[in-house]
Write a structure and sequence with these properties.
Length: about 210
Amino acid sequence: MTKLSLIALVALSACTSAPETLEQSDLVGHWRGTASNGYTFEWQFTPEGAFTRSIVGSSGNFVMGQGTYSVAATLTLQGTFYGEEGDGYRARIEVPAYASSTGMCEVALTAEGNHGVVGTWTSTVTSQSLDASDTPIGEPQITTETMDLRSDGTVVDMAGDIGDSGTYTQNANQITTTFPHGSVASVRTYTFVDDRALCDPLYTLARG
């Protein structure tokens, strides 16, 4: 698992009467959500500003990251993150969090002034590697996801120079995108939250 795979797997989103500005109190608690790839993840946010991020396995949870968090324009996570081999690295990661009383997702895709699924949805994640004393190493990595959902049921992933074309369907608040790749297809399902965010997965509060 790469350093950025943690970011790809996580996203902060929620539903009814979602606040315009995220507050730390919106996150406090124990959250669980299952992504469209079948993996289940958990977040633990404490009132004191500590977080733990885990993947749920049959033999117990594997910690993917732990450290401290703060909330401003984005959710900032600073601490130690772990790959599949258990190797740890220090980083400060800023993600576009979105939360309300219904749920949360940490890398939310949002669209300017959007009311409905048709539009251009974007999220930007910034990851800065740190040394043992938390001094930045090198330049930050910026990852932007941009997805254009069109009224004719087509979707264009604008991450590349040209963008992959596919289709999407909507079933209530579930948006499923399908991108053909030769004989196989990449399929992903997002939850359309609060008429304002696309999230995969959507976390719900397991414990306060």
